Amino acid sequence: xMVNQSYIxxxxxxxxxMITFILxxxxxxxxxxxxxxxxxxxxxxxxxxxxxxxxxxxDCGACTVLMGTPENGGVTYRSIVSCxxxxxxVHGKHIVTIEGINTGFLxxxxxxxxxxxxxxxxxxxxxxxxxxxxxxxxxxxxxxxSLIASLSGNICRCxxxxxxxxxxxxxxxxxxxxxxxxPVGWLVANGHLPGYFLSIAGRLEEIEKNEDEDxxxxxxxxxxxxxxxxxxxxxSESVILPLQALRELxxxxxxxxxxxxxxxxxxxxxxxxxxxxxxxxxxxxxxxLIGSEQVRNMATxxxxxxxxxxxxxxxxxxxALGAELTIKGEERExxxxxxxxxxxxxxxxxxxxxxxxxxxxxxxxxxALFNFEKVSRxxxxxxxxxxxxxxxRMDGQRIxxxxxxxxxxxxxxxxxxxxxEFLRGKEVTSETILQTVAIMKEEISPISDVRGSAEYxxxxxxxxxxxxxxxxxxxxxxxxPEMI
Amino acid sequence: MIxxxxxxxxxxxxxxxxxxxxxxxTLFGSVIGSPSAHGRITHIDTSKAMELPGVVRVFTSKDxxxxxxxxxxxxxxxxxAHDEVHYRSQPVALVVATDEMTARKASGLVxxxxxxxxxxxxxxxxxxxxxxxxxxxxxxxxxxQNAWKECDHIFEGRVDxxxxxxxxxxxxxxxxxxxxxxxxxxxxxxxxxxLVQKIAARVLGxxxxxxxxxxxxxxxxxxxxxxxxxxxxxxxxxASYLLNSPVKIVLQRGDDIRMTGKRHPYSAxxxxxxxxxxxxxAYQAILYQNGGAAADLxxxxxxRTLFHxxxxxxxxxxxxTVHSCRTNLPPNTAFRGFGxxxxxxxxxxxxxxxxxxxxxxxxxxxxxxxxxxGDEFHYGQIAEGVNIGKCYESLEKDFRLEEIVQEIFxxxxxxxxxxxxxxxxxxxxxxxxxxxxxxxxxxxxxxxQDGSIGISTGAVEMGQGVNTKLSQVAARIFxxxxxxxxxxxxxxxxxxxxxxxxxxxxxxxxxxALLIASGKLLDRLKKIAAEKLGCSPGDIELKDEIVHKSGIxxxxxxxxxxxxxxxxxxxxxxxxxxxxxxxxFDKRLEKGNPFAYHVYGAAIVTVTLDCLRGTYTVDKxxxxxxxxxxxxxxxxxxxVEGGVMQGIGWMTMEEVLFNKEGMMLTDSLSTYKxxxxxSAPGVLICKALExxxxxxxxxxxxAVGEPPFMYGIGAFFALQNAVRxxxxxxxxxxxxxxxxxxxxxxxxxx
Lengths: 484, 750
Known about the structure:
The complex is a heterodimer.
Chain A: H1 5-14, E1 19-23, E2 26-30, H2 38-45, E3 64-71, E4 74-81, E5 94-96, H3 98-101, H4 108-115, H5 125-137, H6 144-149, H7 162-174, H8 183-189, H9 197-205, E6 219-221, H10 227-230, H11 232-235, E7 240-242, E8 252-255, E9 258-262, H12 267-272, H13 274-279, H14 281-287, H15 293-296, H16 301-306, H17 313-320, E10 324-328, E11 333-337, H18 338-341, E12 342-344, E13 347-348, E14 355-362, E15 368-375, E16 386-395, E17 398-407, E18 414-415, H19 417-423, H20 430-443, H21 454-472
Parallel strand pairs in A: 1-5, 6-7
Antiparallel strand pairs in A: 1-2, 3-4, 3-5, 8-9, 9-14, 10-11, 10-14, 12-13, 15-16, 16-17, 17-18
Chain B: H1 6-10, E1 27-33, E2 39-45, H2 47-51, E3 55-59, E4 84-85, E5 91-97, H3 100-107, E6 111-116, H4 123-128, E7 137-141, H5 144-147, E8 153-161, E9 173-178, E10 184-188, H6 193-204, E11 211-215, H7 230-243, E12 247-250, H8 253-259, E13 266-274, E14 280-292, H9 298-307, E15 317-326, H10 340-358, H11 362-368, H12 388-398, H13 401-414, E16 418-431, E17 440-447, E18 453-457, H14 466-478, E19 485-487, E20 490-491, H15 506-533, E21 540-543, E22 546-549, E23 552-557, H16 558-567, E24 573-579, E25 584-586, E26 591-593, E27 597-610, E28 615-625, H17 633-651, E29 683-688, H18 713-726, E30 734-735, H19 740-747
Parallel strand pairs in B: 1-12, 8-30, 10-11, 14-15, 18-19, 28-29
Antiparallel strand pairs in B: 1-5, 2-4, 2-6, 3-5, 7-15, 8-13, 9-10, 9-12, 11-20, 13-14, 16-27, 17-18, 17-24, 21-22, 22-23, 25-26, 27-28
Helix pairs in contact in B: 6-7, 9-10, 10-11, 14-15, 17-18
């Protein structure tokens, strides 16, 4: 049999970079390329076939598994899609596949799905079991709504979802009494999880951390959710440096009136951050429109920016918030305003040897108003046709500071500077808004593509700007359909 | 009765094609598709791919020992393009390598040069150029020419419906293993094991008995694995045969979407004429079916479009023509409904158009023209057991139609930027393969010495629960615990010459064959029991695993009876053969009695439209459905709910886009969106109409797979009504799907 030389070579390199984690109830150690996918490791190396491969771009959820991360003395579990997870990102974690949930009898989640005929062809079902189990494992109360939200990244083509909803209703009933301070303990005690979960926290401590930046090498990768789609085959043979392993890039801090988000902070961390909830409470509701539960658990804000998609949801919000990036090269760090970071389509001001360390912005004063709008073909887990964010501060009856950003209407995420300039000093009236949208049209250059025609995107951005004002100034505008 | 597979599914133990343990020497294949939608192949360079370590061989059409032809109905489709390519991504070659990654990399190194030729993607243009897959067909009833004169109102219009990707969660795949004795076993994810067997034999140039096809279950199919699973399976078979090695091919999602056909897009022109009392006097339609580059199942799909072109209405003067047009797209194929949804969408559009013209609700016209017992369909069959009128009455009564109408009116008067809309959607769907010869099935039943039963039929389990229904049939006949029954894989060596599991007919055909086989065994067992108990077989009854004599339980249990029969040298194996009686169709006259029976039902669909953003939610789907006497209400409800969701997807967010070069732009799940859990209707209630059910249906439990799909069509008209409520200046068109983009453009269009 012919032997793949490059494969052998890559194996040799990786011997010095072992990835260790607990898979279900077993400590595993692998020298597979750090950029290769967790899904392939699970299915091919470990022969665990319960985790299914449906799309390899994080859009179907059939490969959903749980990732347990040591946090505050315990282990916090989140659902992730294993197809988009580079192996490097699971070092020191607990990965749970459907096989690791099975207890010998059906768990309440599994039983509810069976009893409600919520599985037909069954190919999506293991992923659905894992997502629902993640909702059970959350550090907050598990409700019908949170169970449904956990399935935002799971496609089922057979059932039409109503039977899955009925199963979720049943699960919500049996999990009412959950102890949110110790979900693992409660779930094990009540037959929702196998007993070995109780030993995981201690066993994870035995794994040596890979957090010495200087000794590591390779492509610096955060969540990997874009790279694993766009460069799947390349990644699968690549050395990568997982930014998540670098402690100083973790966490959200508030310092001197600024909010600083580390490069490895995920979308979910933003959702759950007490700081963000306190200083930017609006943000949380908008986060649900970004990706799916699984993707938000993996994707980072820095990655959303570095990917330079002209339609990045978080990017557009951060543009309106006037964010800045701290960028680090081999020699020095530099600060770049986000709006100057995007040079051309998918081209940024980031040099090859540089990476984003953090994103920061001034905390909004209480008088400021913030809104985000997004329209896509499907409301959840879809890329926007057009999105827009607006930050506005009133100066009495008149508009003071104002920032509107929009995605999908130019080669880069755009700040509508001239539109905002026009708005400054104006009163919020229907006439003002109609004049504003006319100016907006001069600033944008949408193209027709799979997300919609240029004509549609122009009309849609007009609608979204009107929506900003209708939402932020309820009752102030007397806009009737005929006027627009 | 819960689906027998459910426990395996929720614990991840169910085995799909890609989960079958692979033998050590297995090779992996990756398909190379055409870089162009139409042209002459000038050059295929495999040298770079062959240089890659691990690559074993690259196969092209030259390597085929038998016929390079995989056409199911018409021999017009190659396994590998020979001299010309007719659609983009059409298979041209197959790389085989020692691992999947190498095969995939190597497929990118094979260079295919094509001298481009002109392409056509629009079926109307194809028709104009005379590019037809088969001759056009017309169904007629009454005297259409004279009927127009009797009409008080005549309306005309154009209707377009888009393609739909099946998006079975499990992609196409196959694993072919030589048996070392000159034979071969193909594990594959197909709805048509016999078709794979037949075509593999044809391509390899061997008799069919050399090829054994085995199917455990499919991770979804919806018609997409009826004909379209054959190509991949035969490629694996070819490579396996020529290399004498196991070969596995599992398509990556992108390749699967690009290479396989979809639901046919249709374009149509209609003319509808009504009398003053809203009777539809005349209906004429010309439909252009976009068949893609090869016939595949298009002729049969075209036929079903013709059959269902008047949906659940009696229209005395009808003339419907379908042109099956050849275009440079992947060969379009079966998809739940099989051409019926496209045909029904046209007649519903015609009714909607007339309703707008007359400024009345469409359901007034619908209701006036519903089929009645004894009415003639335009294909000659006399309607029997007609339930559509009852369904409408129930909608009005049980779901309080009037209140819904009033609520929507009130809401729309109150809101500035929101509108609600609603529509009714009746369905009448014929059950049987329209190709009469396909309505046959066989079942093989073994009763083992210990009383357990092994059953094989031609039915393929793909989530529709056919294995559970078949188990129920046998359990009921023998009156034993269902746990004693195991349905084996679908295997061509055990049950031969099977029809594909399609046309909603899997349970009917295979269940009836099983009924026959089981009945024969039961008679034999009764006879031997009678001998043992000293009575006549007529006095014997099996009840809850106990032999009863003249209604009184005896000491003889099921297990003892089976053991006794075996010791008495009675055959405990039986075959059943079933052919649906009394169905026929004469294609010369386009008249006959093609269907065993019809399924009826009707739905109310309501939506809310955000008129500022152009986004929408489906609020309610309220259904009155005729299940007959359902053998498994839980499974049947699942079919309704799943079908409705797919139908709504087809009418709303699911949009297959090609560019001018015939390249598919929506070849991933990030660009082709199917409904997610948040897209599900807020409320879905499905009530079962109380009926007896027809004799031809298994235990009078009607087929259920396809009909509910068409309730989804109601979503289109509900949305259209909501748009009209916001923008009265809009001149409505009938162009599905109604995506948020199309909605917004119409909300603000003039």
